[in-house]
Design a protein that fits this description.
The chain is mainly beta. The chain contains three helices and 43 strands.
């Protein structure tokens, strides 16, 4: 029979004691500070240790909550527990800016609140990892927008036009924003990279609507803040983020300035690449349903990386035209505009209808072969118009658009009924039934046709 030695037994006992998990403390907050609870959320946050849970009862708390440690902040639910940040910069600020870019604070959860009336963002996350923002209502923030956002922090290098929006992830990674209601802010949800790389985040199942001055959901690469990178203003990058199953509607209508979902790599050195926009419903926004913009490519400037983004399986309808240099000729489902060459861009399995242009492409040419891959999409006619432009290519890049449904079995060369394809688009073979049909999903490819 095996008998452990005394040393083995002692080491095992020490490991048993040392390896036991520490138990998080639970703090309570109510408006009266009764029953051993704190009267404000901020006092509870200051008293708590990393890993603790703070449960906030129903009521209205007039404060701005700053979190710089791992905590779970749990309210009683939307409409029950309200953080009223009137006169304050933010409702909740998860602040990791004192640490290394992207690692300053981790393991924070914020759930079950209505957060409103902040001068800037309702919820701001800066330099953080493993953050969860779930089941909150974020509304009526950005109140300083009408004054030009005075007092906006210096590390927000490109937010002066919208005060940072409703929910803002800046320099965040491996975080989740899910099942929130984000409405009536200047913009909805913003992902940016001023304080560190912004990557591997999931934004899912949010309802983002009626944010009047910017996009519903935005991925925008901005110049680095000096506190995060004092030697260079070049962007850290926005990459490998997933935007899935959100509803983004009626954004950007106050000034015509907001797409349903926007991906931007605007200035020299900007990096917005390898992101996925999948399974969203995008309707009635003040710019195209999905807008991809790069506006700056001066000779000799640092390279821009706007490659390998995918727009897959979205339902897009009733959006508006794009404007300024990225202008489209009419209401547009997806607009891809870049003054620098792009590679690896995929547009697939989307259903786009009630637009004058389903997919607009104006991209600088570069390299051999197609730069935009567009397949298995349903480009539906607009009905009362003579025809809809299924794909309009006005740039130098080639578009590989085989195996799409153009609204009728005859394909985009038909005289009437089908959506059309411009020059610079390879549309043969095409589908003779909608790509969304069960036959296409389960069978081989009997629907392809070459003429």
């Amino acid at each position: 029979m095996y008998r452990p030695s005394l040393l083995s037994a002692l080491l095992g006992g020490i490991c048993f004691i040392a390896c036991q998990p520490s138990f998080a403390a639970t703090w309570c907050v109510n408006t009266g500070g009764t029953g051993g609870c704190k009267a404000t959320i901020g006092v509870a946050v200051a008293a708590a240790s990393a890993g603790d849970i703070i449960q906030v009862a129903a009521g209205t708390f007039a404060e701005s909550v700053i979190i710089q440690k791992s905590l779970s902040l749990i309210g009683a639910g939307i409409g029950a527990t309200t953080i009223d940040a009137t006169g304050q910069p933010n409702g909740v600020f998860i602040d990791g800016t004192m640490g290394s870019p992207g690692t300053g604070v981790s393991g924070v959860v914020v759930s079950g609140f209505t957060i409103e009336n902040a001068n800037f963002e309702g919820i701001l996350v800066a330099s953080a990892t493993d953050v969860t923002i779930s089941e909150n209502e974020v509304m009526n923030n950005n109140l300083a927008l009408s004054q030009g956002c005075p007092g906006l922090p210096a590390f927000e290098t490109n937010e002066a036009q919208d005060c940072g929006e409703g929910v803002h992830l800046m320099g965040a990674d491996h975080s989740i924003v899910d099942d929130n209601l984000v409405h009536n802010n200047s913009g909805g949800i913003l992902i940016s990279d001023e304080t560190g790389p912004n990557h591997d985040n999931l934004v899912t199942r949010n309802t983002v609507n009626s944010n009047g001055y910017a996009c519903g959901i935005t991925l925008a690469s901005h110049p680095a803040a000096s506190l995060a990178n004092p030697t260079s203003p070049l962007s850290f990058g926005i990459y490998h983020n997933t935007i899935s199953e959100n509803e983004s509607s009626s954004n950007g209508l106050s000034n015509g300035g907001g797409a349903g979902i926007g991906l931007y790599a605007q200035g020299p050195g900007a990096q917005t690449y390898g992101n996925v926009v999948i399974g969203n419903t995008i309707t009635g926004n003040g710019l195209p349903g999905v807008a991809m913009h790069n506006h700056a490519a001066p000779p000799g400037a640092p390279a821009i990386n706007f490659n390998d983004n995918s727009i897959i399986g979205n339902t897009i309808r009733l959006n508006a035209a794009d404007s300024e240099d990225a202008a489209t000729a009419g209401p547009t489902g997806i607009n891809i505009y870049s003054l620098t060459p792009m590679t690896g861009t995929v547009v697939a399995q989307n259903v786009i209808d009630h637009e004058s242009i389903d997919l607009a492409v104006n991209v600088a040419s570069g390299g051999a072969g197609p730069q935009i891959q567009a397949h298995l999409n349903d480009f539906a006619p607009f009905g009362f118009r003579p025809y809809t432009q299924g794909i309009s290519n006005t740039g130098g890049a080639l578009v590989d658009a085989t195996e799409n449904w153009w609204g009728c079995s005859a394909g985009p060369e038909a005289l009437n009924g089908c959506t059309k394809a411009s020059s610079g688009v390879n549309f043969m073979p095409w589908l003779t039934q909608p790509a969304t049909s069960p036959l296409l999903r389960t069978g081989p490819h009997p629907l392809l046709r070459i003429q």
